[in-house]
Design brief:
The chain has a domain of 152 residues: NADH Oxidase. Helix content is 40%, strand content 15%. It has 8 helices and 6 strands, in the order ααβαααβββαβαβα. A 4-stranded antiparallel beta sheet has the order 1-2-6-5. A two-stranded antiparallel ribbon has the order 3-4. 24% of the residues are buried.
C-alpha cells in the first residue's frame, strides 16, 4: 500500500480585482511579443538563467506527480554539430519523402528547408525527453498522462525563456531517436522537442503572421 504524503497549507494571497486585471493584461502583452526565431546570436547565455527556466518548467503539474520529463542542456560545440548533422539528415528525408504535398504547401510561406544551421550556431540547445515509464528497483513502473505532462512542462519552459528575455524555436525533426544516442539517454525516454535558445541575431526578421483572434479560440457557455 502506498504511504500517504503530508499536506501543508497553500501559500496564496488573494489579489484584488484590479491586480488580477493588471497582472493578466501585463502577461498577455508580454506573450504577444513571443515569436519563433531561427536566427540566433552566438553570444553566450548565462548558465544560471537556463537552470532557472528549466527549474520553472519542472513546476508543471503531472499525472500522479510522476514528473515524467528530463531536460538535456547542450553547450558543447561538437555535440551541437552532431545534432545538427543528424537532424538535417532526417529533415532532408522529411522534405523529400515524408511530408505530404499539403504540408509542404502549408509551410512554404515560412521559407524553411532541411538545413538547420541554428542548431550549431546557437549558444544553447535544450532537448526535452518524455519518460514513457520509469524503473524502480529493476521493476518497470507506469507513468501517467505522459504526453500531456511533458507538453505542459515544455510550454512553461518556452514561456520562462521568453519572460527571461531569450528567444527559442520548438524544433521537431521527427523521428528524433538519434538524440537518445548522441545524448546518451536511456531507452525508456523519448525526445519530444529540441529548443535552440539564445539571443536573436542582429536585424533578425520573423514572418508577419497573425494569431487567431480570441473569438476563434474560445467558447463560453
Amino acid at each position: 500500500m502506498t504511504s500517504k504524503i503530508p499536506f501543508s497549507p497553500l501559500e496564496y494571497i488573494k489579489p484584488t480585482a484590479d491586480q488580477l486585471m493588471e497582472q493578466s493584461q501585463s502577461f498577455l502583452d508580454l506573450m504577444k511579443k513571443r515569436r519563433t526565431v531561427r536566427e540566433f546570436s552566438d553570444e553566450p547565455v548565462p548558465e544560471e538563467v537556463i537552470r532557472n527556466c528549466i527549474e520553472a518548467a519542472g513546476t508543471a503539474p503531472s499525472g500522479a506527480h510522476m514528473q515524467p520529463w528530463h531536460f538535456v542542456v547542450v553547450r558543447d560545440p561538437e555535440i551541437k554539430r552532431q545534432i545538427r548533422q543528424a537532424a538535417e539528415n532526417e529533415e532532408r528525408i522529411n522534405y523529400e519523402m515524408r511530408y505530404s504535398d499539403e504540408m509542404k504547401k502549408d509551410i512554404e510561406k515560412l521559407e524553411t528547408n532541411f538545413e538547420k544551421p541554428f542548431l550549431e550556431h546557437v549558444p544553447v540547445l535544450i532537448a526535452v525527453f518524455k519518460e514513457s515509464y520509469r524503473i524502480e528497483n529493476h521493476i518497470r513502473r507506469k507513468n501517467y498522462y505522459v504526453n500531456e505532462s511533458v507538453g505542459i512542462a515544455t510550454g512553461l519552459l518556452i514561456t520562462a525563456l521568453h519572460y527571461s528575455g531569450l528567444v527559442t524555436l520548438p524544433h521537431t525533426p521527427s523521428p528524433m531517436r538519434f538524440l537518445n544516442e548522441i545524448l546518451k539517454r536511456p531507452g525508456n525516454e523519448s525526445p519530444t522537442v529540441l529548443l535552440p535558445v539564445g539571443y536573436p541575431a542582429e536585424n533578425t526578421q520573423v514572418p508577419d503572421l497573425q494569431r487567431k483572434p480570441l473569438g476563434q479560440i474560445m467558447t463560453v457557455f
